[in-house]
Design brief:
Elements lengths: L13 E7 L19 E2 L3 E2 L1 H10 L4 E6 L4 H10 L10 E6 L13 H6 L2 H7 L3 E6 L2 E3 L3 H11 L3 E9 L7 E5 L5 E6 L13 E12 H12 L8 H12 L2 E5 H4 L11 E3 L3 H10 L27 E3 L1 E2 L2 E2 L1 E3 L2 E2 L4 E3 L2 E3 L2 E2 L4 E2 L4 E7 L4 E2 L4 E7 L4 E2 L4 E2 L3 H7 L1 E2 L5 E3 L1 H5 L2
Parallel strand pairs: 1-4, 1-6, 4-5, 8-12, 14-19, 17-20, 18-21, 19-22, 20-23, 21-23, 22-24, 23-25, 24-26, 25-27, 25-29
Antiparallel strand pairs: 2-3, 6-11, 7-13, 8-11, 9-10, 15-16, 28-29
């Protein structure tokens, strides 16, 4: 009797390579001491955990992470939280700092170079496919579906894409596609992005996710490395070259987005500005948030400190530990203060009579007695003095803190020390 064997998932023959070397300068002081992928997000996680969790949940068991800018906190997080993959199970997890492996005076010159300099490591593992990922976006996606589409199309490269308002596409790679989904043109960060035919206000933007056959990718990277005119970048050099001389297909995020029952729309965010970072965190305080981080079918893995539970103390009129529509992480003590539509990371201490409103407070901060903080991001370890008011006087806020055009304040300890 003949047995039907289900084909093994393509993800098992794939390596995910996460590009996590960027600073993310638009996050201002949040990236003074850490790379953008290492920035805290959502109460317990870091930004990079989303790309890594997508890879693990998709069935990929070989992962490499290229780091460069101020990488210590990122590398420490990766070692603590992502060291469960085991070579004995045909798994691997490699942290790949820029280490002048090609030349004594050459760090990673671009996104493509960050892969090229580690080709020997990749080829030693011999994965059949490569998924190249950006390590600085918030989303849930099943890469197995994209891998299957890549194999079915016979493409040289498959590019993950999403539809965005046309003028928001100035910071992306933008593509033209034909009726089959084949990319006919690819322009990196155009000042005047081309629109989708018949939809003048919408553009098709690259997510910075690429699927290649490993052998083809290696050929392209070596060709590019030999070109003195190249900027060593996937979006500027590799992808446009394949579009012109090979076959490149677009893969819509809507096809492989992972949504739980409560998620109405496909959620993808570049949290690369203070405003976007604040908004994405505050989004999580909605009654039904647009991103479900409670989805047990697609968990967001991370390193988590062993902490005691959050604690709310005092029950006096005007001095009662309360939280409304907020996320409060472990080891937080709300001691006679109140918070609304706010998100507290691990180990925050909020003292009596203080008020937090639409605040994102990173780990181990202290909110002093009687302080009032609204529409703000408080960096890790900041000690807000007793009685300090943030978010109510735009002129004073702009003098003291980093204040965005929409009125969001970013507060760091050096700013507090200068008061």
């Amino acid at each position: 009797m003949q047995q039907n064997h289900r084909a093994a998932p393509i993800a098992r023959d794939t390596m995910a390579y996460v590009l996590a070397g960027g600073r993310g300068s638009r996050l201002m002081e949040l990236t003074d001491t850490r790379a953008k992928p290492a920035v805290y997000f959502g109460g317990k996680t870091r930004i990079i955990d989303f790309a890594l969790s997508n890879a693990i949940n998709s069935g990929i068991r070989r992962i490499g992470v290229a780091t460069q800018y101020k990488a210590h906190s990122l590398i420490r997080h990766l070692h603590r939280g992502w060291n469960f993959l085991r070579p004995g199970r045909n798994e691997s997890f490699d942290v790949l700092p820029a280490s002048q492996r090609v030349s004594e005076d050459q760090w990673y010159a671009g996104t493509a170079d960050a892969v090229y300099q580690n080709l020997d490591i990749i080829e030693d593992y011999a994965p059949r496919y490569m998924v190249i990922l950006a390590g600085d976006h918030i989303y849930k996606m099943d890469y197995e579906i994209m891998l299957q589409a890549h194999v079915d199309s016979g493409a040289d490269v498959t590019v993950g894409c999403l539809e965005v308002p046309r003028m928001e596409a100035v910071g992306f790679g933008v593509m033209h596609v034909d009726e089959t989904g084949r990319i006919t043109d690819f322009i990196e960060k155009p000042a005047d992005p081309p629109s989708i035919p018949g939809r003048p206000d919408t553009a098709l933007a690259s997510m910075g996710i690429y699927v290649f056959d490993t052998k083809f990718l290696a050929e392209q990277l070596r060709r590019d490395a030999a070109d003195p005119a190249s900027s060593r970048d996937f979006g500027k050099d590799i992808i446009p070259h394949v579009v012109r001389h090979g076959t490149a297909y677009a893969h819509s995020f809507n096809t492989s987005v992972v949504k739980s029952e409560g998620e109405a729309d496909a959620y993808w965010r570049d949290v690369g500005t203070v405003d976007a970072y604040w908004q994405a965190n505050i989004d999580l305080t909605d009654v039904v948030p647009p991103l479900d981080i409670y989805d047990r079918d697609w968990p967001i893995w991370t390193y988590a400190d062993v902490t005691p539970p959050a604690k709310f103390v005092h029950d006096e009129e005007g001095r009662r530990g309360t939280a409304v529509s907020s996320l409060v992480s472990g080891d937080c003590i709300i001691s006679g203060g109140s918070l609304s539509r706010s998100l507290l990371f691990t180990g925050v201490r909020q003292r009596s009579w203080s008020v937090l409103d639409h605040a994102v407070v990173l780990p181990h901060c202290l909110i002093g007695r009687g302080a009032r903080v609204s529409r703000a991001v408080i960096d890790r370890g900041v000690r807000i003095p007793d009685g300090l008011v943030i978010g109510e006087d735009p002129e004073l806020d702009a003098q003291r803190f980093r204040r965005t055009a929409t009125g969001i304040c970013l507060v760091t300890q050096p700013m507090i020390d200068r008061l």
